[in-house]
Amino acid sequence: MTTADDTQLAMQGTIEALTTGDGSEPVVVNLGPQHPSTHGVFRLKVTLDGEIVQDAEMRIGYLHRSMEKLAEERTYTQNIPFTDRIDYLAAMSNNLAYCLAAEELLGVEVPPRANAIRVMFAELQRVASHAMANGTFINDCGAWHTPLFHMFRDRERVLDMFEMTCGARLTTNYMRIGGVAFDLPDELLPTLEQFLADMPENIANYEALLLENEILHARARGIGLISPEMAINSSLSGPVLRATGVPWDLRKANPYCGYEDYEFDVPVGEQGDCFDRFLVRMAEVKESLKILRQVVDTLPDGPWLADVPLHARPDPGESYARVESPRGELGFYLVSDGGPAPYRFHCRPPSLINLTALKEMSIGGTLADAIVTLGSIDIVVGEIDR
Amino acid sequence: MTVQYDASAAMEIVNASAPGAACVDGGILFLEPDRLVEAIQALRDSEESDLIFLSNLTAVDQELHFEIVYHLQSLDLNHILQIKARVTDREDPALPSLTGLFHGAHLQEREVYDLFGIRFEGHPDLRRMFLWDGFPGYPLRKDFLQMPGQVRAGLPGFPHESEENAWPVPGSVPQRPMHPNDPQPEGELVVAEEGEESS
């Protein structure tokens, strides 16, 4: 897809090359919108000098569904399915963040069992999402689907658990304002126990397969570097920020849903390169399994949904609630004017904001490194465009 | 637990370096749009506030003015501060850009420009992001379009389609055709007098 300004840029390059006499000219390459490396409908326009990236510019909006506008016309409960579709690889986390914002606005107290179930599904979602992220990242590094499908096997089991609980696998629509939609089915806990029993061996297998892999090291070590100061200044969050060594995790910093009751560590990287992001995600899966173990052991009884009217009308005001989604800091900013629908519905999308530094990470590297860097950020285009 | 940073403490920090740039209304810090960069730089660089992480940047159309909302976070001291700035000009709303202070403001300001039409002066690459160049109007404004079944009034169609869809005068209530379910307009019912009937 060549646009007028692409042509102009190429022309400029030709003129420069002719006038400076070094005989070379920059080449503009469009990665995407449909490209295996872009994880969705996303276009990265890179300007290349030989194989070195001189400029990287992203063009987005192919998946813009005007969610924020649509949500202004629907009631607070009707908006929950939208949040599934914002980040379709972490629907539970999105449900949770939106419900927390709505609960803050309505002043709802969530029952303890609902909180434990929410933590359980948010962590299961993290396992599934990181399996997807790491699997596709290794594909971008040159593996041919073997690690991806190993990890998909685990993700599949998580999705099966979602299905038996709420009937849906991807767009779960499970959380409600004041709790969760259904109690856990009888068959869930045995399945989860089996999953928790199998996962340590699976992870050990992945680590044996990948951590010493020379190709992975060659492709990902020292690629896509970013410093902690630059990461904070660019508002990066999630594994991309933690890979630079900043231990910022909202589950620790601002515990919600009773995360303060569970013991877990915040894994951080050392150098802030693509390999560190991969390692951080791998370690986070282990921490999630630790949290899941504690949730299963201490699961309280009681109601799973507080008594909240379906057509709740909060008082005029605003709320900003954030959770640590698999991709980073996911926030919902709601403004109420006292009506049945939010006056303003804004999602702080970690995928979009993590892309702020993509240009800085890619410039100076090769085109193949830019693809690895993009894969390591773990974007979901539904969340970028909304 | 992240605590809300005290707005009046933040006001003191701002007013120490930029007198009169901040005021507190209802527990929320409001900044003068003209001196926004100066004020937020004071909050970022002060050791007491240490607000080095721009968590969120968005806008709200409050019909008479735009409210630009910033959430700034301190990672070491673990507090968050909500800051607002008001822009009253609906024809050509503009505000200084924070990209010089926070690289993370880049895409968020572009998003606000795309969907609200608020210009951020000094932004290095202020273009539409989700929508294409030449898209008529700014969809997240409250007076954008009248969607079927929508609660709030808006334009009946895209502005470029016909004259009747032209943008309303700022401040006026957007008009739309009457719907049978609409409440009857208040005021006197005008009854045609006898003898005035058309023949």
Describe what you observe in this structure:
The complex is a heterodimer of chains A (386) and B (199). Chain A is of the alpha+beta class and 386 residues long. Chain A folds into two domains: 4-59, no CATH class; 67-385, Orthogonal Bundle (Cytochrome-c3 Hydrogenase, chain B). Chain A has 16 helices and eight strands. In chain A, the strands form three sheets. Chain A has a three-stranded antiparallel sheet with strand order 1-2-3. In chain A, strands 6-7-8 form a three-stranded antiparallel sheet. In chain A, strands 4-5 form a two-stranded antiparallel ribbon. Chain B is α/β, with parallel strands linked by helices and 199 residues long. Chain B folds into two domains: 3-136, Beta Polymerase, domain 2; 142-176, no CATH class. Chain B contains three helices and eight strands. In chain B, β2 (22-25) and β3 form a beta hairpin. Chain B is globular and about 55 Å long. Classes of the chains: A alpha+beta (386), B alpha/beta (199). At the A-B interface, α9, β7 and β8 of A face β4 and α3 of B.
How would you summarize this macromolecular structure in one to three sentences?
The complex is a heterodimer of chains A (386) and B (199). Chain A has 386 residues and is α+β, with helices and mostly antiparallel strands. Chain A has helices at residues 4-20, 67-70, 80-86, 91-106, 112-140, 146-166, 188-210, 214-220, 228-233, 239-242, 250-253, 274-297, 350-354, 358-362, 367-377, 381-385; strands at 27-31, 43-49, 52-59, 175-176, 179-180, 317-325, 328-336, 344-348.
